Amino acid sequence: MAVIVHKASHRARVADVLGWIDAHSAPLEAQEVTLAQAAGRVLADRVTTSVDVPPFDRPVVDGFALRSEDTIGASAYNPLPFRLIESADHLPPASAKWVHAGARLPHGADAVALPEQAENKGDGACCLLEAVIAGAFIERAGSDAARGSSLATAGRRLRSADIGLLAAANISQVPVVRQPRVRCLFTGRDVAEAGTPLPADAVHDATGPLLASLVARDGGLLIERRWVDRTVTAIRGELASSRADVVLVAGSSGPGPDDHAAVALREAGKLAVHGVAVRPGETCGMGRTASGTLTFLLPGAPGACLWSYELFAGRTIRRLGGRSAALPFRSRKMITARKIVSEIGMTEVCPVQCIGDGAVGPVTSYAEMGIAAAAHADGFVIVPEGSEGYRQGTPVLMYVYDEASSNLAMESDVKP
Amino acid sequence: MAVIVHKASHRARVADVLGWIDAHSAPLEAQEVTLAQAAGRVLADRVTTSVDVPPFDRPVVDGFALRSEDTIGASAYNPLPFRLIESADHLPPASAKWVHAGARLPHGADAVALPEQAENKGDGACCLLEAVIAGAFIERAGSDAARGSSLATAGRRLRSADIGLLAAANISQVPVVRQPRVRCLFTGRDVAEAGTPLPADAVHDATGPLLASLVARDGGLLIERRWVDRTVTAIRGELASSRADVVLVAGSSGPGPDDHAAVALREAGKLAVHGVAVRPGETCGMGRTASGTLTFLLPGAPGACLWSYELFAGRTIRRLGGRSAALPFRSRKMITARKIVSEIGMTEVCPVQCIGDGAVGPVTSYAEMGIAAAAHADGFVIVPEGSEGYRQGTPVLMYVYDEASSNLAMESDVKP
Description:
The structure is a homodimer.
Chain A: H1 14-23, E1 30-34, E2 47-48, E3 58-59, E4 63-66, E5 80-84, E6 95-99, E7 111-113, E8 118-122, E9 125-128, E10 138-139, E11 150-152, H2 160-168, E12 173-177, E13 181-186, E14 191-192, E15 203-204, H3 207-217, E16 221-227, H4 232-240, E17 246-250, H5 261-268, E18 269-274, E19 278-279, E20 285-289, E21 294-298, H6 302-320, E22 330-336, E23 340-341, E24 347-354, E25 359-362, H7 371-376, E26 379-383, E27 389-390, E28 395-400
Parallel strand pairs in A: 5-6, 13-16, 13-17, 14-15, 17-21, 19-24, 22-25
Antiparallel strand pairs in A: 1-12, 2-11, 3-10, 4-6, 4-7, 5-9, 8-9, 18-20, 20-21, 22-28, 23-27, 24-25, 24-26, 26-28
Helix pairs in contact in A: 1-6, 3-6, 4-5
C-alpha cells in the first residue's frame, strides 16, 4: 500500500485505515494454556471431548433408583412393595437402591423416585406411592456432551461455563490465540513521569498509564514501557530492534519540524498512513517495521492518544489476539438531546452524556475536549465524515462505556 | 434472621435471600493501590486534584502563538506582518512565536494561528492571512480539571480514561475498595481433580475451575482451593478457621443423610438459609461463621453450582468489592420464539439462545440442563416464582452473555 502523505487535504479516510489494519492483523498463532489461565482467552482450535459428559447415567436428585416398569399402578391407594438393596451393580426386579445425586445409576435402573414418593417400612422394605416414568430424574451419559462432540469452536472467547464444561470433560489444557506483545515508546516533549519532579513548563505524563490500561483491556501483553529521545535516530533505533507484535509510539506523531516519529518509521520500514481524517487524532500514523512489527504513531495529547488508540491500535491488538475487531463497547440507539456539530470530511468522535432515558448530549464542545471529556462521558457517538453532525432529536448510535455507571435505565438486577 | 428450614414447602423466596445478602455485604474497607493496579477497581473515596489540569494555557496544535487583537482585519487581500520571535516568555505586540502542541503558551498570547493561516517571509517576518479569535486552538489551564475539583467520585469503577486523567493530575495512588478474599472448599463425592486418574464411578471435577473463573470475573481474590472430607467435623473445622471474607462450599449442600455442609455451618456459626425456591440450585444455602465469614453452600452438580453462584454468591462478592450488585450481564428485551415452561412457586433460570434478531428460545428442557446448557446459551431469562412461564411471542428480559458471540445483530463496529 502506498504511503499516504500527511497534508490536511490528503488525510487518509478512516475506512481505508481500517482496511489496512484488517489486511495486516490476522490472529496470532496458537499456544497451549492451562484451564486456570483460559478464561477470557480465545480458542485457536475446536475442542472436542474424548469422553462422555457425564460418563454414565446418573440421578440428578437423591432418591430411590428403580425400574420404572415395576412402578406401573403404584398410588397411595395401591402402594407397591419394593426391596431396598444396599449395594447392587445390577438392580433385580421389584427392588430399589438409595442413590445420591451424581452417583452412578445401578445397572437395570432407569428412573429415580423422590423420597416423598416412597414410604420406608423398615427392615429393607419400602412402598412406592406413585408411578414414575422411565428417565425420571436421570441425567443420561453424554447428555452434556457425547464422546467426540465439540465442546467449543475456534474463535470462541471462553467464559466461566465453558471452563466448567471443559473441566467436566477432563480437559486441562486448551489451545488459545497467543496474546499480542506490545511495546510502548514515549517521546513526549516537556513531559514528566508520574512521581518525578515537574520541570518548569512540563506536564505529568498521562499517556503511559492510559495506554497500559487500554492494552490490558484489549488482551495485549505490555512487555515494555520506555522513554525515548525525541530524535529520528533514537526512535528509528527502537523501532528497528523491536521484537514485539505491536509498537505504540506516543508523541512526536505530528507533521512539525520537531516531530520525528513518521520519518523514523519510514526509515525503519514502511509508513503506510500518516494523517487520518479523524478528530481527535488527525496526526496519527501507522505502518510496519522491516521485521513486520505493526507500529502506531499516536498523538502525545492524552485525549487524541486515547481516540487514536481506540479506533486503530486497539482494533489491531484485538484482532491479533483473536477477539472481535469491534469496539469493546456495546452500542445502543439514542436520540440527541442537543445538537452535535462535526466538520464535513472528518470522522469525529463525540463523547456524550446520557440526559434522561434514551437521550444524549455532547460532553463539551470539541475545542475543550481533553482526556477529561472521555472520563466524564457515558459513551460516545461517531459522526461519519460525510456528516455535519446531528440536529436535536436525531437518532444516533451511542457506544456505551458502562451501563452501571451511566444514567441509563438499569434493568440488570435479578428481577424475579 | 431465623434459620429457614429446608423443606420443599419451606424454601426461602429469592427476594428474601437477596435481602439477607444485601444486609450482610457492605463494601469492604479502602486500600491504596498504584495507578497501574487501579483499572477496573472501585474508588473508595472521591479523588480531587491539587493542581490545574493542564497546569497552564497551551496550544492544542503546532502553530503561531499570537495576540488575537493584532489579527483584526487580516485576510489574503490584507496580509498583516508579524515579527517571529524565537524565545519569548512575554510576547510583544505584533509578534508571533512558533509553538508546539502541548507547550506553555507565551505570556501575552491568547490564540494560535495554523501554519496555513500564515505566510513565512523569511528573516523572522511572517504575514497573517486570516484573523483569529481569542482562545483559538488554546486549551486553558484547568480546563480538564481545575485545582480542587473532583476527578472521580466514590463508587466509580475506574476505566482507562479515568486512569489517564488521574495520571495527568500527578496522582500515582488511589484509595479503592479492597477485593474480597474468597476460599473454595470442595466436598464432592466420587469426584476427581482434573489431571488425576478417574476412579470407577467417579467424574472429573468441574466446580473448581468454574468457581475460580467466576470469582475472578466478579473481582474476588481466590486465596485457597481445598478438598475437604465429606464429614461435619471436617467441614466445620475448615469453616471455623476461615479468615476469608467469603467461603464457597461446593457439594454436600443437600438435605440428604450424607450431606453435611448445612449442619457444619450451623455448628460453625449461623445457617441463615437452607433451600431456596430457585431452579437450578434449590438445595443451596448460606449463612455466617462465628467470625462473620459469609458462607455459601453450593450444589456439587456444575449447572446448579453455576446458577447458585450467579444469583447469590456472585452478588455478595460484587457488593463486598464495591461493584454493582446487579448480574454482570447487560439485559435486553426479547420475544420468546418458543414457549418457556416454569413451575409456579419456583424462580427458574432458563438458558436461551437467540433465534433470529430479537427472539429467544430455551436451550434445552430443564431436565436435561447441565453445565453444557449454560455454555451453549447466548444468555438466560429469569422466570419469576409467580409465573408458569411464557407463551410463544411473549416479551421477556434476556441477560446477554456476550453480544459478539451471539446471533444478535451486531452494530458495535466502527461505523463512520
